[in-house]
Amino acid sequence: MSAPHDSSPEGQKKRVAIDLDPNRHTQMTWISQLRGNGIAQEVMNAVDAHLEAAKRDPALQAKADQLRAEMEREVQAKQAALANLFATSEPPTADDGEQPTNRPKSRRTVKADEGADEA
Fold first, then answer.
1. Is 5 exposed, middle or buried (0-12, 13-18, 19+ CB in 10 A)?
2. Which single residue of 20, 37, 70, 74 could bond 24 by disulfide (Cβ 3.0 to 4.6 Å)?
3. Which of 50, 66, 60 is nearest to 2 (CA)?
4. Where are the domains of the chain?
5. In Å, how far from its chain's centre is CA 47?
6. pLDDT for 37-47, tens place per residue?
7. DSSP string, 58-76
8. Is the dihedral of CA 88, 94, 97, 98 positive or negative?
9. In the 3-class helix/strand/coil scheme, how is 77-91 assigned residue by residue?
């Protein structure tokens, strides 16, 4: 049978309000009376049974596996980004064949009317 609904830490519960159509309410009332339970207990039993059935559903398990894999990829990407942020990198050296110069490179721009042939 399913686990009892009071398995949560003491005093920690979430209230859920549901609207039942008259037919369902009547059925729940009869079932609860026949079993000697309150309607709330019968609803809790139904929720527990639904949760147990969902845990055995292969399609739901497959979706959960896909979600878990996606979450793991996201965590790995975030970890890599954070590691990259604090990684120490050495400044570039002149060993790559270029001689360092203290002069800034020329950045001459050509104006639109410069270089145009005059008629």
1. middle
2. 20
3. 50
4. 12-85
5. 25
6. 999 999 999 99
7. HHHHHHHHHHHHHHHHHHH
8. positive
9. HHHHHHHHHCCCCCC
Please give the CATH topology (third level) of the domain spanning 12-85. Arc Repressor Mutant (1.10.1220)
DSSP states along 18-63:
----HHHHHHHHHHHHHHT--HHHHHHHHHHHHHHHHHT-HHHHHH
Distance CA 28, CA 38 (A): 9
Give the pair of three-digit tokens for residue 34.
Answer: 């026949």
Burial grade of 29 (CB within 10 A; 0-12, 13-18, 19 or more): middle
| Tokens standing for residue 87 | 């990684």
In this prediction, residue 63 has a pLDDT band, given cuts at 50, 70 and 90, of very high
96-112: per-residue pLDDT in tens? Answer: 555 555 655 656 665 65
